[in-house]
């Protein structure tokens, strides 16, 4: 989706200001937001791609004016309703109005460090061989999907070169909407900055991880 989260190359937002000695949390509620997200996500009711989609799929004005952990809370509120863990009325009331829904598993406090260390590996086998070899020239598809995608807007319809092949991985564009993992080959593609931003750029190159469904083959450049 083209939303407020996709700001690469956008003008008018000012520089990224790095806060010196930035604390892990700026407010006590942020710590609770992280804890709640880990606890409820640990039930297995949704995937990380569904979580990203739930945070990002909202009006740009809302996305850009909501604090980072505020988006986590908004996303979680959406997901607990979508997955039937509670109702919209319970979210609005801030308390249970019916017996709790059953969950697949419970992430207890003593298991949190190991669970966070393990992460959520996305590598998966893919039946078909990769379409592109390292060094191949490719063009990203020019698309404006109304659903979740991991292809940045600034890199769509651009020509680059395959730098690495990472094997098969969960395809976020389907997994974010509960349509299955649909594993796809994943590549790192190198784009010359001028291809993305035009001749006025001062950058050198940008590396973007692109799933195979995002890519089309480009004929090699003929020798003069």
Give a quick set of tags describing it:
single chain; 224 residues; alpha+beta; Cyclin A, domain 1; SH3 type barrels; 2 domains; five-stranded antiparallel β-sheet; 8 helices; 5 strands; 29% helix; 15% strand
Task: Provide an overview of this structure.
With 224 residues, this protein is of the alpha+beta class. The protein folds into 2 domains: 28-118, Nitrile hydratase, beta subunit (Cyclin A, domain 1), CATH 1.10.472.20; 137-217, SH3 type barrels (Roll), CATH 2.30.30.50. It has 8 helices and 5 strands. It has helices at 28-41, 48-56, 60-65, 68-82, 88-93, 112-118, 172-175, 193-197, and strands at 137-140, 159-169, 184-192, 205-211, 215-217. Strands 4-3-2-1-5 form a 5-stranded antiparallel sheet. Helix 1 packs parallel to helix 4 (68-82). The mean pLDDT is 93.
What's the gist of this structure?
The protein folds into two domains: 28-118, Nitrile hydratase, beta subunit (Cyclin A, domain 1); 137-217, SH3 type barrels (Roll).
* Strand runs, count: 5
Shape field? globular
Look at the helices and sheets and give the structural class.
alpha+beta
- Along the chain, the helix and strand elements come as HHHHHHEEHEHEE
Distance between the termini: 41 Å
Number of helices: 8
The named CATH superfamily of the largest domain: Nitrile hydratase, beta subunit
The CATH level-2 architecture of the largest domain is identified as: Orthogonal Bundle
Strand order of the largest sheet: 4-3-2-1-5
**What are the segments in which pLDDT stays under 50 over at least 5 consecutive residues?**
none
Write down the CATH class of the largest domain.
Mainly Alpha
Query: What is the residue-averaged pLDDT?
Result: 93
Helix content: 25-40%
β-strand amount: 15-25%
CATH topology of the largest domain: Cyclin A, domain 1
Radius of gyration: 20 Å
Number of domains: 2
Summarize the biggest pleated sheet: 5 strands, antiparallel
């Amino acid at each position: 989706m083209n939303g407020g989260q996709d700001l690469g190359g956008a003008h008018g937002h000012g520089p990224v200001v790095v806060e010196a000695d930035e604390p892990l949390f700026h407010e006590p509620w942020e710590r609770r937001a992280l804890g709640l997200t880990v606890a409820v996500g640990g039930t297995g009711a949704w995937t990380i791609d569904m979580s990203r989609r739930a945070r990002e799929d909202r009006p740009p004005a809302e996305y850009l004016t909501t604090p980072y952990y505020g988006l986590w809370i908004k996303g979680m509120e959406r997901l607990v309703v979508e997955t039937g863990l509670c109702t919209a009325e319970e979210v609005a009331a801030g308390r249970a109005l019916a017996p709790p829904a059953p969950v697949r598993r419970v992430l207890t406090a003593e298991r949190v460090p190991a669970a966070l260390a393990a992460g959520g590996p996305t590598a998966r086998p893919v039946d078909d061989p990769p379409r592109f070899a390292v060094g191949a020239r490719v063009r990203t598809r020019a698309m404006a999907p109304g659903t979740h995608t991991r292809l940045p807007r600034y890199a769509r319809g651009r020509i680059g070169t395959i730098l690495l092949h990472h094997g098969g991985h969960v395809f976020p564009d389907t997994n974010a909407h509960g349509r299955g993992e649909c594993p796809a080959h994943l590549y790192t593609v190198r784009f010359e900055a001028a291809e993305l931003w035009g001749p006025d750029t001062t950058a050198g190159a940008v590396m973007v991880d692109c799933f195979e469904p995002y890519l089309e083959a480009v004929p090699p450049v003929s020798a003069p």
